Automatic annotation (TrEMBL):
Domain of life assignment: Eukaryota
Identification of the protein by name: U3 small nucleolar RNA-associated protein 18 homolog
Stated role: Part of the small subunit (SSU) processome, first precursor of the small eukaryotic ribosomal subunit. During the assembly of the SSU processome in the nucleolus, many ribosome biogenesis factors, an RNA chaperone and ribosomal proteins associate with the nascent pre-rRNA and work in concert to generate RNA folding, modifications, rearrangements and cleavage as well as targeted degradation of pre-ribosomal RNA by the RNA exosome. Involved in nucleolar processing of pre-18S ribosomal RNA.
Family annotation (InterPro entries): Utp18 (IPR045161), WD40/YVTN_repeat-like_dom_sf (IPR015943), WD40_repeat_dom_sf (IPR036322), WD40_rpt (IPR001680)
Amino acid sequence: MGGVPAWADLENRKKSKRTSSDSDSDDEEDDLLCRTGNFITSSESLPRGILKVSTCIPANQERFANGKLVTVQFHPSAQVVMTAGHDRSVSLFQVDGIRNPKIQSIYLESFPIYKARFSMDGEQVIATGTHHSMFFVYDMMAGNIIPIPKVRGVEEKFLRNFELSPDGSFMLLIGTSGYLHLLSMKTKELISTMKVNGRCTASAFTPDSSKIYSYSKEGEVFIWDVRSRKCLHKFEDEGSLEGKCIAVSKNNQYVACGSSSGVVNLYTTDVCLKENHPKPVKAIMNLVTSATCVTFNPTTEILAVASRDTDEAVKLVHLPSYTVFSNFPVFRRKQIYLTQSMDFSPRSGYFSVANNKGKALLFRLKHYSSF
């Protein structure tokens, strides 16, 4: 309609740049085109098959952990990543993909770390130990390390596994003998205790923090109402001999259950809430040893599944086609080793894997334009 518009004609633009003294408007035009380009790429859905990915230097290049690295997690709002390990240290690094400079490390004496997590406001780090009934809170704003002694009403010899609610209100301690202890994030005091049949191995909050999915060693999933602490529903994970890990997608569409057989069953949440024996939309069978870690990326386009029992046992599954990206990991070059923890950055630009060699491997997912 009316030929090529002036802004799309490169020859005309070059001439006008040479003849016009008012180059500012051209710069603004170029900026607009660049910005529009970014917006277009980030709004397109992720294609299946081959994942555009590049390997960066490890996120903790400036301070590798001495021994097993149990946690890697991206900060909820800053371009920062945290690592924690059995060497009793918690470290923070700025993520630029080039040098990843260290911000700081803290050391918890006689406290090998089992798990560490950022609080939802990003101002605290909560860390539990491998053989302790207490845990630590590191207040990053004040620079204080606060020990939280044995919580009154929680009769547990060790406090290890825990989850934090997305709204920042609750901390869920996964105890022994099927007990789940719901704590207030503000006071770190016990609110209520729930109990599943058998032993609970993993739990996950829904994105709106209204429900908790608890996965038992016997392969049953219990769905709890956070407000009333009542069990709303229970279903059996198909074919599960022993439950290992569970995750709920950020858009609340999917629940992923990983078991000792290596199978990760992917369900839609609406089916999980209604049926006692729901059929998974996909059974992911790419792992040959226990599925010990499952996590969704923030846009619910990738499900990462991993096993800590075999080297290089990480797979990235494309959603909603339920197909595995064929080019990850790179088999010719061994680098991942035994996966202990995984995380995606807030806008999926980066993916990190913590391994048993003390490294937090870092990968740039090129489809996503920002951190």
